[in-house]
Amino acid sequence: MHITFARRLSFFIRHYSHLGALTLLAIWPLLVSGIPTIGDGRNHFYRLSELAWHIQHGEVYPRWFADMHYGFGAPVLNYYAPFTYYLTLAFRLFTPSIAVCILLGYVLMMAVAVFGTYFWVRDQFDSALAGFVAAAAYGLAPYMYINIFPRVVGNGSLAVAVLVGLSSRS
C-alpha cells in the first residue's frame, strides 16, 4: 500500500498536534527570555562562536580554540563533549545568528524530551492519555528548566531526552 506524504502529514497533525502545543508551552519561557546568560551560558555562546569560526576556515574538529581565555586559548573539545555544539551549529544553515542557533538547539532538546516521553509512556502503559500526562509532567518539570537556565547543560538535557526517546518502541 502506497501512503503519500500528504496522508502521513495529515496523520501526524491529527494525532500529535497536542504534543506540538505542549512543546510550545514548554519552550515558551526560553523564547520570551532569550538565551541563558547566567551560569555557563556565555561560555557556550563563545565556544559555539569559536567552533563556527573554525569550521568556516576548514577545520572541522579543532583541538584548540585560540581566542578563548583572553587570547591564551583552550583545548575545549578535548574536555567537553562536542555533539551538542555541532548539532546546534547545524542551525547555522538557516540563520546566521549564533544566539538563535542556541535557542533552536534548546527547542529541539525540549521537543525530543516531550515527544520521547510521550512515546515511551504510551508504549509502556498502552495509553495515549498516560503518555500525554507524562510528557506534560516531564516537559514542564523544573528539572528541565534548571538544566537550561541556571546550569545551561546542553549535553545533559539532550542525553536525557534522547535516552527516553530511544527507550520507546515507536
Number of strands: 0
Please work out how many helical segments DSSP would assign.
8
Helix content: 55-70%
Spell out the helices and strands N to C: HHHHHHHH
Biggest sheet architecture? none
What is the rounded Rg?
18 Å
What structural category do the secondary elements indicate? Answer: mainly alpha
Low-confidence stretches: none
Mean pLDDT, rounded to whole units? Answer: 84
Counted up, domains total: 1
Could you name the key traits of this structure?
mainly alpha, elongated, 69% helix, 0% strand
Question: What does this protein structure show overall?
Answer:
The chain has one domain. It starts with a helix and ends with a helix. The chain contains 8 helices and no strands. Helix 1 packs across helix 5. The protein is mainly alpha-helical. The mean pLDDT is 84. Helices cover 69% and strands 0% of the residues.
Structure, briefly:
The chain has 170 residues and is mostly helical.
Describe the secondary structure blueprint for this structure.
Layout: H1 5-33, H2 41-56, H3 76-79, H4 83-89, H5 98-125, H6 128-139, H7 142-148, H8 154-167
